[in-house]
Design brief:
This protein has helices at 3-12, 54-58, 62-67, and strands at residues 17-20, 26-35, 41-49. By secondary structure, it is α+β, with helices and mostly antiparallel strands.
Amino acid sequence: MAEKERFIARLNAGRPARYDDADGSARQVIDHRFRAVDGSLYAIRSSGPEDLAADLVRAPLTTPVASFCPSGARCG
């Protein structure tokens, strides 16, 4: 599997993927894709330095993703 396909597969699985930023520094990114209750598709991305714990990269996604889900609704 080519590097680009591995990167996309990791993103689609919700796992951090590594990429090189414009300045050449290594970064990791998590791309969270989901469908809102109204059927609209959304994607939210979070990134950080390569050595940052994956949980800390993922943490900023929690609030925005939750804001798309009304109280009492099942979202995913």
